[in-house]
Amino acid sequence: MELATLADLLLQASTRAAALLWQHAWQLVLFAIALIGLETLWPAVPTQRRWRRGSATDLWLSFFNPLIVHPFNAYLLAAFVNGAIATVGMERFITTRETIAAQPWAIRFVAALLVGDLLSYWKHRIFHTRILWRIHAVHHLTSEIDWLSNDRDHPLQLIATYFVMITGLVLVGFSNEMIALQSLVRRAYSLFTHTNVRWSFGPLSRILVSPTFHRWHHASEEGMANRNYAVVFSLWDVAFGTYHEAYAEQPRRFGVAGEENPATLWAAIKYPLTH
Ligand SMILES: [Zn+2]
Ligand SMILES: [Zn+2]
Fold first, then answer.
1. What is the pLDDT of residues 87-99, one digit of tens each?
2. How far, in Å, from the CA of 169 to the mean position of ligand 2?
């Protein structure tokens, strides 16, 4: 590769990264206004501070991770997987594509969310098993949960799963646009379910994830391990026997029993290697 071409590529990549981060920044400000508003009006833990131990790490990760999992990247990745499938002549095996394309927009949208959430349920459940747990534990080490805790994911977890998730959705037959949209909506919903808000959805809790539902996933209380994996549809937990939601109660302790929340970003990044 010629030097000029390489310089062009680097310039393009950095311009695109800057655009993604800028878009991420203003979206985060809008989410902060809306979700801190909810946390102020209906707090689950009223004494919890806005800027808590770990907030800085969460914010750093929030700005690094979109470079991997931004919905625009989901679109590009879906287009790449589709291109690869067409190149090897395997398109005809995706028999559901035309059936899905013939459905009204709302049906395609809900179906993409459901399938995306089903894949994400099993991804999450697998990350709670022995070897992968050390990577996913970084998300769980925080002892206070708020909206920004959502973005506390180890980059290795995202790198390891993003391609698999997108490929799964392409193989089911969803369009690139719908794959990007479900990625955007599921992330927004996940920010909401991490809020320090005491909401639960009553009988609907067996269908939709509420903040209380996900707060129980982070609880370090006895007997709460391996519960409530879904991001949007708790019906996957009901279906696979991992559902728990105590309507009347809120969890009292969060984090990983016996483990300190790493104080710095670097300590969080190297946690999987040192534990
Ligand atoms: Zn988890
Ligand atoms: Zn979480």
1. 988 888 888 999 9
2. 22
